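User: Please predict the structure of the protein below. I'd like the answer in structure-token form so I can feed it into my own downstream comparison script.

Assistant: Understood. Taking the following sequence of 515 residues as input:
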Amino acid sequence: MAAAQVWSVDPRTGERRGAVGTEATPDDVDRAVRAAHAARDALADRAVRAAFLRGAAALLEEDRDRLVAEADAETALGPARLTSELARTCYQLGAFAGVVEEGAFLDVVIDHPDATATPPVPDLRRYKVPLGVVAVYAASNFPFAFSVPGGDTASALAAGCPVVVKAHPGHPATSALAADVLGRAAERHGLPRAVAGLVHGFDAGVALVRHPLVAAAGFTGSVRGGRALFDAAAARPVPIPFHGELGSLNPVLVTRDAAAERAGTIGTGLAGSMTLGAGQFCVKPGLVLVPTGADGDELVAALAAAVEDAPEGVLLDHRMRDAFVAGVAERAALPDVEAPVTPGAAGDHTVGAGFLTVPAARLAAPGPHDLLLEECFGPVTVVARYAGDDEATAVLSRLPGNLTATVHLSAAEAAGRGNGAGILARLTPLAGRVLVDGWPTGVAVAPAQHHGGPYPATTSTSTSVGATAVERWLRPVTHQSVPEALLPPELRDDNPLGLPRRVDGHPEHPGRPGS
């Protein structure tokens, strides 16, 4: 049987744009993984890796117009948004090049022998080494930043791990173009193109996570798809780490005093966040706890006015559009749920933004309204009106894990007068990033960033954004009583690579005064 063709589809019309290639067969997946596995040693040189990452960023920037045009044709996200996303992706590649050059991610620790310790300490030298081939599952909603040249790929390559990317079916042509850019960048720096391979097709994704030479996986997508791959990774004869970002409600709590202070501003800001990118951000605020009473009513009115002005949007594909339309209809049909602005289908290929309201008491105990505590991908949010702090706390206690949790405080609460600290303490167990007086949409690429959270937000405690994302693809190894002549250069006493490290309990930072 001939392999199925992979088609590029225009979400604005639902029409096929053209064939990109064919879905990978099991033999295709095997060849891609084995080629990546054979390319591991080529990535061993940190200087070459850093140059490759910077070179990839430069080539992506050179091909910006073509990449953005192709991505827009496949996702309808718009040139402005996609140009910004590509710039973010290039910056991220450069940031990881800096991580590679600095070398702190190797976490070098040296303990010289100490016969006086109890028990005695032999010569111990620890650092981190690459896991091997990483399977990367591209996201639908970020065709650059969380796809072929995105954070999982960049961090894995920074760690010294070749990747094989399973392209998302929503933007296969964009994925092919991006993979070609990575391949050209690799060749320019003396690396085989196989350090960043690409496969298409659902079955290829399953075969990839099961391949015995795949050492780890990174995923961004749905709870259903991510959990199936997570289970497959765990069921292998040799289980592998699976770092998946699956789903997040991203709750927001507006205190009564905050609503009294700036209801209109909060309502307008919420509208901008929940409709950004047609509501297709993984950190979209999907549940907002707003107090009952006049101030809460003013907030809801401001939200309604701003959402009504939001333009119709095109979702990433018609499957997602159908799921959105069905999802909001099912939620709106629940008892005591109202739709001040009705979300749903707008045209044959577009959707309209909206939001639902519900008494928070309906969410405080298990029941059919638990559907409102599940992510609905698209431009919709749920506003739960709480009568008292106990009611809000009861709802928060029932939430699953999230990428973010946000609180809007009054000026006095933010200054420490009130229960602001107590609210933050309640939100912290819910999410990997806790915000005050802001909105979660927008994930900065920075060393202190954490993009992850308790399950089902992610399947591990790691981040997929920021410098420490590289740690997912490494494992520690200790050399004990190994002669100096046999040690890898990272662990030698003379530190020929100039790495930051900890020696006998004391940090060393080569090049810094006093080190």
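That's the full token string. The radius of gyration is 25 Å.
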